[in-house]
Each structure stands twice: as C-alpha cells, then as structure tokens.
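Review form for a predicted model. The reviewer records the input and the model, then writes brief findings.
Reviewer: anonymous (R2)
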Amino acid sequence: AAKGAAYFRMAADQGVAEAQFNLGLCLEKGEGVERNTDEAVEWYGRAARQDHLQARLLLGYCYLSGKGVEVDHSVAVELLRMPANKGSVPEAQYALGHLLMNGQGVDHPDIAGAEKYLTAAALQGMVSAQHYLAMCYLEGFGVERSEAKAAKWLQEASVGGNVDSQWQLHKLLERGKGMEKEAERWLNAAADGGHEEASKKRQAS
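Model under review:
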C-alpha cells in the first residue's frame, strides 16, 4: 500500500487526475500513508478541477458532511452536477436529487430536477434512491402523491433488500384485496431483516 501511495503521489505531482484522486483516497482512508483528511480534500480538489467524476463526487460528499472543509451545500450541488449529468453516476444523482428536493444548496427546491435525478439513480438499481423516491410518492413530498409509483419503487427497493421498503410495501399491500400472501411475504422479509415494527407485528399475529 505504501508503494502504491508513493506512486500515486509522484504521478499526482505531475498533474495526473486519476493519480490525484487515488492519492486522495489513500489519504482519506489512511492506506499506505498516514490518514490526512485535509490533504485528501486538497487532492480531490485538484482532480475535480480536471473534471474527474469520482473526485467531484467524493469532494461533494466532503462538502455535505464537513469532512476536511466547512459544510457548503451550494458547492456540493455544483460539484455533483457533472458526475450526475455527464457520468450518470447514481451516487451523484441520488445526492443531487436529495439536495434539490429539499432546496439545499439552491435558491428554491427544484422538484422536476430532483425527480429526474432520483429516477435516474433508481433506474440504475440504487436501492436508497428507490426507497427515497417511493416515499416521496407515498407521502406526496415535493411530487404529486401516487400510490402506484410508490408501489413500483417500493417493490424494486424491497427486492434489493431495503427493510424499510419491505415494511412500507407490506402496509400498502395489506390494504389491497387478494394481496394477503404478498403482504405477509414482505412482512416476513422485513422482520427477518431486523425491522422492529415488522418483528413486533409478526410476533403479535
């Protein structure tokens, strides 16, 4: 690991974006070098300025969490746009969609943009995006309430193993006629996955 970090540093000093990104990773995780979040952010920044998509994603995360920098949602939004658009990076699409839906880092919520990015991430199989999008449709948060759309994404996320989606899908199916077996299936899945409410309900039944 130390040799790899030394190689990345040599190439990074020469301006190679991929090496700058990898050196940032080594520094953030403490692999082959002493962990140094501040320096990791610096190298992510250099790679990001060369439009390295993963560097822009991870630097965006840093600005969201305050890791090595001050929290700044507006900077995060700008960093995430390129990997979300150009790279179709689902993690960037989900993070950006979440920010736009909540009006963070922008002047006002961008519901259409949020729905676009969240759907793009969900279509790429990102379970957290599928669950979040489903809950937006289920609760009418930012979008028009739609149980049909909610059910679609809850189903996808449930298959992907999200216990919260499995529980919500159980509750949705429970209200439908002739859906008892399917509702029970997702109750059991959620309970088996450690969902507290699902476990209590199964025990009580």
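Findings: The chain has a mean pLDDT of 96.
Further findings: Residues 23 and 157 are 34 Å apart (CA to CA).
Recommendation: see findings above.
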